[in-house]
Design brief:
This protein has one domain. The protein has nine helices and two strands; from the N terminus they run H-H-H-H-H-H-H-E-H-E-H. The chain has helices at residues 2-20, 35-46, 50-73, 82-96, 101-110, 116-134, 138-141, 156-165, 182-221; strands at residues 148-153, 173-178.
């Protein structure tokens, strides 16, 4: 079994690494603590764990916005000023740590850490991706799927009997099943996640880079 997984994972890495290698290289000034989280998401994408990638990108999005606000609140403070650093850091945590994403996104725009366009993009992600996946709202996750799955229902005993006799298999009964049936719903979620995961990460990652540059400019100006 282990060899089978090695083969599958090796094939996935060989296929996906050319598209992801550049993301492993770059460094940030203000989000160094998120490096391992980013790498975990990239590893998910390498191994084609698309749903896991989305779950982790949801966390990255929310963490980036909160850290951006905290970093701005404590700009130019460091461990060389432990008392002041601790005081301001705890104040920032109190202000933002327990707030919902809708609140922190609005705060980040008000603090000019994200642009209006970025706000609209991230707010859309909040509504269409982060919330549905975080709350397992399958109806919202697969909202683009058809309402029903159409197929043909066969009686397995009749099929086996026809095969034994060498007779043609009778056409099954045309049947429609709701796409929200757990089995079909999960298949659609997996497919949508595959289409979505990489682009979702890329956009969140790019906005994080943009925020990092703004914080760096703010640091040099204060």
């Amino acid at each position: 079994m282990c060899d089978n997984y090695k083969e599958i994972f090796s094939r996935s890495i060989d296929t996906n690494f050319p598209f992801l290698k550049e993301f492993f290289k770059f460094k940030l000034n203000h989000f160094i603590e998120l490096t391992k989280l980013r790498d975990e998401i990239l590893k998910c994408l390498l191994l084609e764990l698309y749903q896991s990638s989305i779950f982790s990108t949801n966390h990255l999005l929310e963490r980036v916005i909160k850290l951006a606000l905290i970093n701005k609140y404590t700009i130019n403070l460091n461990f060389n000023q432990p008392e002041l650093y601790n005081e301001k850091t705890l104040e920032a945590i109190e202000l933002y740590d327990d707030k919902k994403l809708s609140y922190t996104l609005n705060s980040a725009q008000a603090e000019k850490l994200i642009t209006e366009k970025e706000f609209k993009t991230l707010n859309l992600f909040r509504d269409k991706i982060r919330n549905p996946y975080s709350h397992a709202q399958i109806k919202r996750i697969i909202s683009g799927a058809p309402e029903k799955f159409t197929g043909f229902m066969f009686n397995i005993n009749e099929v086996q009997e026809s095969l034994k006799k060498g007779e043609p298999i009778k056409l099954g009964k045309k049947t429609e099943i709701t796409t929200l049936s757990p089995a079909f719903a999960q298949i659609y979620q997996e497919d949508f996640s595959k289409q979505l995961a990489f682009d979702y990460f890329k956009i969140v990652n790019q906005i994080m880079i943009n925020i990092d540059k703004r914080l760096e400019k703010l640091k040099t100006c204060t």
